[in-house]
Amino acid sequence: MFLQKFGFENSSTGATSELFSSPKDYYHYANNLDNNKYARNFLARNYRDGTGGANINNQQAFYWAKESAALGFTSGQYNLGYCYIKGIGVTPSDELAFYWFKEAAKITSSMAEYSVGFCYRNGFGTPVNQLKATYWFLRAASHDDGVDGLAQYVLAGRYHKGNGVNRDVHKAIRFGIRAIQFELRTENNGQQNAMYSLINIFSNGFHFLM
């Protein structure tokens, strides 16, 4: 399922997260701090994931994501889109999910950029447009924050197949290698995942290079 492997984006503020120890703390700061967009976003994540001492509460997760997004916080906007695409505390809406992913991507959110590309690729909330999908995947791949590895994996396949781009074996290989390097760098079982990625990317077509 779309974005099933991703939770809420761990946004900008490790320092902010250290200020709070329980949902009650988040609630207090969300309503009293001038910079409360951070607290509202963290509160949404707690209720969504059942972390920080909170019980899972989808309605509260949606409410606080919406509150954070209303303050223009990029991660709050992305998380609100995530609620809409997954139906967390709200009736699912691909159109509203796409809208909020694009809002988050206007500033710079690699996860939002990837999600916009995914929506264009699959027609979630917008007509299928493979050229635009590639554009947004390229943007997501330009960051060095963890999402880039996923985007590079997708781009390897797109350049290999010529989907939304001119077919380019060299670019497919380049993005594939970067995706594999990401797997090796980040996963405990990185070598196994890297080999699986290699097989997926390069099978059924690259034999003609021999």
Automatic annotation (TrEMBL):
Source superkingdom: Eukaryota
Transmembrane parts of this sequence: none
Family matches, as SMART domains: SEL1
Record SUPFAM superfamilies: HCP-like
Gene3D superfamilies with a match to the protein in the record: Tetratricopeptide repeat domain (1.25.40.10)
PANTHER family: ERAD-ASSOCIATED E3 UBIQUITIN-PROTEIN LIGASE COMPONENT HRD3 (PTHR11102:SF160), SEL-1-LIKE PROTEIN (PTHR11102)
Family, as annotated: Belongs to the sel-1 family.
Protein name, per record: 6750_t:CDS:1
